[in-house]
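Note to self: the last two entries modelled the partners one at a time, which told us nothing about the interface. This time every component goes in together.
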Amino acid sequence: MSPLRSPSKERLWKEEFSVFTSDERYVSRRQFTKFLTLASLGMFAGNLWIVLKSYLAKKRAYPAAEIASLGEIPVHGVKLFSYPTQQDNCIMVRTAEDEYVAYSQKCTHLSCAVYYSAKNDRFECPCHQGFFSIKDGSVLQGPPPRPLPQIVLERDGGKLIATAVKVSGNG
Amino acid sequence: MASNTPIKQRRGLVAIDGAMALIVILLVVQIWLLSATLEAFLAGHRGPVVPAAIFSGLLFAACVTLNLFVDRVDRESRRP
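The predicted structure of the combined assembly is written out below.
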């Protein structure tokens, strides 16, 4: 038997509940197409929801926290600290006599702890050989998809204060 | 048998199959786009959110167009 039914003079809506198998097959394709289009609408709505969330989300406020005093660590020395919470491990490096940089210690690949390689002057992740620049935390090599979040440092007299976490894209 | 079916209907069915396949491909791209956007958003990156929504809207518009095309082909191939 043919999968197609013979032409009918019935109105299209009357054929929706046809008793013919061939008609049923024909209609179900159309309904399936409608279902796919509705699913597409759902995906679009999901994207719009993300846009709304990103615009309505409040900017996170970070506390100011003293993390070290100037001259506490030698040039190319490292200090580990936690910021903004006790669970967020960070690493600070004194790159020059009067220059400090700090980043989150979590590798952006699978959250292994990165360490500072003074020999290569970069951060290295021991798990999958992901390397990050000491200058801006950008990815130099390996699987990490994003740069390390940077801890914004300010000076207050002889103290180094962490004031925010700067997350940037990998551009 | 297939040889007895009107050519118009057979062509209509092929066109509908093609349009359906295209909609499925667009839907897969849209699903991937949604998951990638969500991942970026949850990672704190808001840059790709708006372009992804616009592209997703375009894909949805393409799906609607294909759906209308399927409806039209369906009507025409059913016309005696």
